Hints:
This protein is an all-alpha fold. The protein has helices at about 5-10, 20-45, 55-75, 80-100, 110-130, 140-155, 175-195, 195-200, 215-235, 240-255, 260-280, 280-290, 295-300, 305-315, 340-375, 375-400, 420-440; strands at about 170, 175, 205, 210.
Amino acid sequence: MTATRADAARPPGPRLAGRRGVELSLLLCAVLICVQGYIGVGLARNGEVPPDAAGYGAGLGLLALLAHLAVRLRAPYADPLPLPIAVLLNGLGLVLIYRLDLETPADRAAPTQLVWSTLGVGLFICVVVAVRDHRVLQRYAYLCVATALLLLSVPIFFPAVNGARIWIRVGGLSFQPGEFAKILLAVFFAAYLAAKGDALTLTGRRVWRLRFPAGRVLGPVVAVWLLSVGVLVLERDLGTSLLFFGLFVIMLYVATGRTGWVTAGLLLAALGAFAMGDLEPHVAARVQDWLDPFASIEAGRGPGQLAQSLFAFASGGVLGTGLGLGHSTLIGFAAKSDFILATAGEELGLAGLTAFFLLYALLVARGYRTGLALRDPFGRLLAVGLASIVALQVFVIAGGVMGLIPLTGMAMPFLAQGGSSVVTNWIIVALLIRVSDSARAPLPGPAAPGAPAPLAEGVR
């Protein structure tokens, strides 16, 4: 029997069932929960069921069914949980945005968000169908990093929005290229670190208890990271720069297995945050707001955004005020984007917030579990990197709106208003499903005559 690359993709073990029936059942539950939330908002605000509730449920159900069929046909052994979690989070995000739209009829965001969500599901299907083997992405590592740096650089030439140059606006359309760059950089980091893992671990010079790899090995990936973070700092996109920094440290730790990288990363992050808070007025203002969120009230100017967010969480208590019965719109212009978690906290309470965080934790954990199930270094690093992107986004935005860390502008995955964010998160879920299919697929039999040659190792 001839061994193939797929044999090495996961360790030997019992055959796993496809679990597509479980996935379909969970999707049905997710759609019903979202429809119930939509109806609940209508009853709370207008005393009647929204007239388009059936259309909302049918549309969301159709998108979920199409995504399920793509997985069933092209990735039959994939993990059954990521897709239902994504549908549930995306559907509840639409419900929360619709609820906030009722307070701002002149600025309706739910229809546009629904269009972006449809596009995201469409790209999810395209990725699942087109990418038959995640290792193919390893061939395009340097193309990915070049494209990512280009996408990060373009917004410098566009006007700043709310103090940051992170948007590209053409006519009535706008998108945030940094959202797409994070996936491309994750692919590059995974490919490079997979190819250079032994050199990173075994070569270099020891300083005290840490062994630093040779400059010729670590230099290229550090240069890419510094360029990306430097561009983001110039654009004042501090949330994404923090995400890229955390992603780089996590993937470097997974590739080498050395905890010293985590320690060094935390020290560098602290130094960078101190320097930016001292030198950049935009960052200094956010740090000051974090240290004293109620200063604006004491000065007679009324509560600021962070103070209103904390009031919303306090008002929600354990069980919340009920969907549609909160006052989180007092937060202002970012209630549907950066601070949408405050609406969830006020109207669904601590119980609702806990449910959201458990969904995110489950999605991240399944990504890590997929990485652990793979022997393929690139697939393992890619799964961990993609799952870490979701984890870092949740930590940065949730910590900011709850006053745990200084606020940085990012979108809560699937929940917040933002077309670029919802599209890229659907692509992340598609790639996790593709990798999990390789991890869970049964071991193949003898190679058929004329079968295509296995992919070559390394970065090309």
